[in-house]
Write a structure and sequence with these properties.
Oligomer: single chain
Strand content: 25-35%
Structural class: alpha+beta
Order of helices and strands: EHEEEEEEHHEHEHEEEHEHE
Number of strands: 14
Distance between the termini: 23 Å
Radius of gyration: 16 Å
Largest sheet: 6 strands, mixed
Number of helices: 7
Length: 249
């Protein structure tokens, strides 16, 4: 990882991990579980009935969303955390899922993201996030909120005449006092990231930053660390590297 991983999760810590696993998560899960997530967001994950769930350590809950059983959005909770989709979940906004997360001591809202809707080319990627922010605006008003996953977007691809480009999404989230944990921790500007989360065709010389963990001030004020996996370590498993955000609660 590009900052040192923390080897154990104390009771007062929350560790969020997102990793687009590039399918076949059942063969790769042990690689990410060594970082001991509390909540794990896995885009391009197969349906859980294809995964040996008993092999996922302290798994306490999981849910999956998608139409292709080989490639959907998986969310896995550990250490007694439970997941509950909210009542006004809108499946047409693909694939972005609002969940309530709770372990009895820590409760928060999670918007799990794999922004990918080929049936809406105009809004295929970041446009889905833009739609979700508007549809779930009441959900985003909560004090404790995290958005994590593969946004498939970056400011470098902004189209100025579109009000749903990446910079507009970042600005909309800022209105809710929600910001990127990575950009805060490393003091980076959107579109000028020094760490990459995606390598086109797994080529080291084609790096981009597409995966994010946005969080409300309740969490970012307690941000302990952020790590992003290196191409050298993770390129053999996926075209994406994991992003780990740890909060000291």
């Amino acid at each position: 990882m590009q900052s040192q991983p923390i080897n154990s999760t104390a009771n007062c810590m929350l560790r969020m991990i997102t990793w687009n696993c590039n399918m076949a998560f059942r063969y790769k899960s042990e690689k990410i579980l060594r970082y001991r997530p509390d909540v794990l967001v896995i885009p391009e994950c197969e349906h859980p009935d294809k995964i040996l769930l008993s092999g996922l350590g302290k798994l306490s809950d999981c849910c999956w969303f998608g139409t292709n059983r080989h490639k959907g959005l998986g969310i896995f909770a550990f250490n007694n955390y439970k997941l509950k989709p909210i009542d006004n979940y809108q499946p047409e906004i693909k694939t972005i899922v609002p969940l309530q997360v709770s372990n009895g001591n820590t409760d928060f809202n999670l918007l799990a993201v794999w922004a990918n809707n080929p049936s809406e080319p105009k809004y295929q990627y970041v446009g889905q996030v833009w739609k979700a922010i508007h549809h779930y605006k009441d959900f985003l008003q909560e004090k404790k909120i995290i958005l994590a996953g593969d946004f498939n977007s970056n400011t470098i691809w902004d189209r100025p005449k579109r009000n749903w480009n990446h910079s507009h999404v970042v600005a909309l989230l800022a209105q809710h006092k929600i910001s990127s944990a990575y950009h805060q921790y490393f003091n980076q500007q959107q579109g000028k990231e020094k760490h990459s989360t995606f390598y086109l065709y797994r080529h080291k010389d084609k790096p981009y930053h597409l995966d994010y963990c946005f969080a409300s001030a309740y969490f970012t004020n307690k941000l302990a660390s952020v790590s992003i996996g290196t191409h050298h370590k993770w390129g053999k498993y996926s075209d994406h590297s994991p992003l780990i955000a740890t909060f000291s609660l």
